[in-house]
Structures are given as structure tokens and as C-alpha cells.
Amino acid sequence: MKSRTTTALIGAVAVAALAGCSSTSGAPAADGAFEPQDVRMIVPFSAGGGSDASGRAIASGLETASGATVTVENREGGSGAVGYSHLFAQEGNPNYLLASETTLLSLPLTTEVDYNYESFTPIMKLGDDYTLVVVPADSPFETCTDVVDAAKSDGVVVAVSGAISLDEIVFSLIEQDQDVTFDRVPYESGSEVIAGLLGGTVQVGSLNPGEVLGQLESGDLRALCSLSEERYEYEQIAEVPTAIEQGIDVAFAQWRGFIAPGGISDEARDYWIAAAEEYAASEEYTTYIEENLMQPNAIYGDEFVEYLGQNSADLEAALAE
After folding, report:
1. In principle, which of 35, 128, 145, 308 could form an S-S bond with 253, CB 3.0–4.6 Å?
2. Which residues contact 136 (CB under 8 A, 6 or more apart)?
3. Where are the domains of the chain?
4. Domain 132-246 CATH (choose: 3.90.25.10, 3.40.50.150, 3.40.190.10, 3.30.450.180)
5. Does 119 score more than 80 pLDDT?
6. Triad 188, 285, 126: Cα angle to 5°
7. What is the pLDDT of residues 55-107, one digit of tens each?
């Protein structure tokens, strides 16, 4: 699935929307402009994983762009459902945000929840984050084909960070493509998956490059393949072959971004979009994207909503196969 690339520019409207905003006053000012107060950035997974890193980067970037104070809250549980449910309960409150990713779409497709992406106010998609299939340094597996062959004979235990996470999706796609079945152990974050791999609880994991780069560089873990259309251009993982090169026709990206509750005012929505556009033009954004080896495909507002609709349809089709 390929994502459209939109260059983040700050226009006069964005600058005007941010002008005069303060982090100390209550919701709408006397002139109708939104002024944030006690902003909360919910991360629906535990500390240490890719979603946590994303939430903290966005919070810091929005603080710089807007002057508002943004406090990060980890509300893990239910494979992300606890955090999303908390945001859903904040209907109309523009001082709550959530560091979102593909779980926003996969949860409603696979779980009994009271919301879907249309229940919220999408603000910004930061970019796309593919995964690497990784194993401990002493694993007998040398390629992703080795993993598939072992699953056909002896069985393979894989880790997934959330029962309906990107990891679950890509392993399901591999199962469909190769006619195999994996045994799964669910975790609540990428950091827990890494601990499971290093501790020998699981044999194989699927992790975003930014989550696992330290362990790859130290030699504690090895990457067998990337689940992307093409090899990464980032020097650290440029030599990792794609699963497609190894005869496994699977490539699926996780997007990362942030959303607000449903029912907020147009002024509040425009405020956060303007702040997001300013963040995307900053060195902070570039640093986050590059340090986490992501693809910088930023889009906002209505374009983000359109993207979510198409991505949800693609995901539903993939899960139904």
C-alpha cells in the first residue's frame, strides 16, 4: 500500500490561526479564537515503544509550535482500546489529543468498540512506518523464508505488540501469502516484544526500525527482512532485503499521526492543524522522522480523513482474505 506524499507548508492562514494563542487561558477566547489549556496527549500503549516515541515527539513539537503545554499520558490496555476509549469520552474537548496509528482502524474492524475513525477529529498524519522481521542474534533463522519453512514443519512462536496491531496484520498477511500458521504471544508495546525476544520467550518479532535500531546496532538482534515495497534508503538498514525479495509478497505500512476528540469546534480543529503544519516544517519533525527511519508523508485535516477512509478499506480487505 503506497501513501501519497504531501509537502508541509505554512501559509498565511496557518500563521494567522496561531497568532495570539496562549497556553494559560481557557477554551474559547472572547473573540472566538481557541486557546488551549492543560493539553493532554494520550498514548494508548505503554512507555518505550514506537507509539510512545511518536506521542512524545508530537507533544514536544506542538509545544514549540503553539506555546501550549502538552502533557503525555500513557493509557495502555486492550491493545490500544483503553486509550482510544478515553479520548472518545472527551467528546467536544479540544484540550485532549491522541498519538494515533493503524490501531485506530484495526480495532473497530476486529473488536467490539463504540467508535471508529469517524468518531474523532483527525489532525495530522506524520508519516509511514514499515516493520522489520527480527530475531535474536543466536537464532538459526537467516531469512524470512527460513521462518516460513519452520512454520510449515516445526512451528514458530512470534511476538505481536497488541492483538490487532500492525504486527498482527503483517503476520496474518504472511500466513495468507505462504499458507502457514504462527503461534502468537501478545505484548502491550514494542519494548516488551524486544524483552520477549531477548529473553527467549518468542522466536520472531515484527518491529518498527526506530523501536529496534539500538538492538540491531549492538548485535543483540538481527533483521531478516523488511515488510516494505522497497529496501530502506537509511544507511543503518539499507542492506536488509525486503520480504518480497525473499518470495513473500507482503508489504504494509503503519501510519503515525495524531487525532482530537469528535465534536470540537472548527476554530480548535484549525488551530491544531496550523500547529501541526508548523511542527512539520521544523527541525524537530525532521529529526523524529530520520531517527525513527520513517517515510515523511505528512497530510492534514480533510486529506487525512480521506486517507483514513481508503486505508480502512484496504485494511478490511487484507484482514478478510
Report:
1. 128
2. 197, 198, 200, 203, 220, 221, 222
3. 12-129+255-320, 132-246
4. 3.40.190.10
5. yes
6. 55
7. 999 999 999 999 999 999 999 998 899 999 999 999 999 999 999 998 999 89
